Amino acid sequence: MNVLIDKFDVFAGGFWLTLQICILAAIGALILGGVVAVLRISPVPPLRALGTGYVNVFRNMPLTVVMFFAAFGLPALGSNADFLRIPVIDSLFTRLGTDLPYFRFALIALVLYTAAFVCEALRSGVNAVSPGQAEAARSLGLTFGQNLRYVVLPQSWKASIVPLGSVIIAMIKNSALVGFFGVVGDLSQTADQLTSAEGYAFVPVAIGISIGYLIMTVPLGALLDRIEKRQAVAR
Amino acid sequence: MDDVTTGEPLIVLDSVNKWFGPLHVLDDVSLSVGRGEVVVVIGPSGSGKSTLCRAINRLEPINSGTITFDGQPLPAEGKPLAKLRSEVGMVFQSFNLFAHKTILENVTLGPIKVRKEKPAAARERGLALLDRVGIANQADKFPAQLSGGQQQRVAIARALAMQPKAMLFDEPTSALDPEMVGEVLDVMTSLASDGMTMVVVTHEMGFARHAANRVIFMADGQLVEDAPPAEFFANPRSERARDFLSKILTH
Predict the structure, then answer these.
(1) pTM
(2) Nearest by Cα to B106 from B148, B163, B160, B173
């Protein structure tokens, strides 16, 4: 078990990188998922079809395949995803700005994939609001956007938050895949590095990286439980 | 109440048809409602009367025929439809007050967001309307803290806050405890005598008798009778209406 102490800095570095990926991917997926959810409940049929198509594609494709498309498809199209080198943010999350594009590719894949699930979690919240609320808003003359903003969304987020949390926890675990698509130094790739290249026993290393993931997911799960209990009381 | 304003009618339905799948819920319905007129729609459940009411502000789209409001055909969607709806007040069976907003916010949301009124002015008028329906002292409460009758009166105030040209009532008292029906009908009666154009779907025969200019009887999606209340209740022409009245008036 000495590896946990001897290589503490490696584990810590892997944890930090995975945390960065997860924070960025969560933000991206929440924004994109929100947009897709609005498309899916829009009154305009082509927009609805677009949203539904998006969810059907990305919810039903294995994340590994999405990662392949990002890591091999984007370079084939001549893109290094440089649009993700966003000033200020790339100084906070330094991997965004590096010349090796794999962090950005992995991020794109994780965002595209997770956004489909975020969309459905948000939509389940919207469906939990009684249809009469939106009907009353429409009959006052509120437009679709006003209806969402002032009537439906303020009531739907409560019902969305628990399924959304589950989606984000799943995303944190899914991020373990990025190490196999060129991202060097995240938690899962750290395990591979320590065992295959440096010859450490697998089990202690696996325990180390598990602890890393649990530090991220367990508090999030506990937070969700608390929110759920508070909602039960409010009802 | 017989001094109904003449001139061009406010609401005109012409050969309106609607199907829910194989069910013909509105079967060639034609109807016109004059300005200031109070039309009460009665009929057995499933006769299409709620659908008729909801079609007038296009909460239910129709399959064929035309509906015109204030001389304009109903817009299909978007901003023009939103504008039309802002001119037609709607009161629902289940109140549908915005659960996350206070009573006063419920009443002022439309004027502020749709009519772009100044919040202070909207609040002042909102309070006056709440006062008119007798709940000004509950303005800062949330809908769930009010009784059903109070909630429905707020819903009426919310619709009136838009200064609508007509009001639609879709079974406004059907979800209420019996002792609260009166307070809502009182508000509706006072509206009627103030000259508001109203289409009221209801089972309250007393209201139909004393407040309506016309009673519409519907059955199986068809408009079966259209007569002044005194005439309709004393002497229904159709077998369906006689049958319906005998069932509800014997108890």
Answers:
(1) 0.82
(2) B160
